[in-house]
Specification:
By secondary structure, the chain is an alpha/beta fold. The chain has a single domain, classed as 2-Layer Sandwich (Transcription Regulator spoIIAA), CATH 3.30.750.24. 43% of the residues lie in helices and 24% in strands. It is built from five helices and seven strands; from the N terminus they run βββαββαβααβα. The strands form two sheets. A five-stranded mixed β-sheet has the order 1-2-4-6-7. Strands 3-5 form a two-stranded parallel sheet. Helix 1 runs parallel beside helix 2.
Length: 119
Amino acid sequence: MTSAASRLRVSEHDEVIRIEFVDRNILDEANIQQIGDEIGQIIDSHQQPKILISFDNVDHLSSAALGTLITINNKIRGKDGQLRLANIDKQIYEVFVITKLNKLFEIHDATDQALSSFT
């Protein structure tokens, strides 16, 4: 599903597509564009995508990455799908709170909680 130069690790379990980032720092514009494109292709290939994005390995996230997440969220909702975010570092979560994105996204502390929240 993903190329050798992918910035993502993708797995599927019980109709839920789990996405993890390869990079600890998601700051580079070109990488963010590639991530957005890869997730967009995953969304396009599913009728009602159920996607869990885990930030387990992520230490830093740029504002451009947040913009890409909003685009991904809109695309998933447009297909009547579901998006969950999990394992967000406390400092990164603060940015979600400040920007009020914690109200837009369904965010869980752990992957297991996020997985069990899909309907």
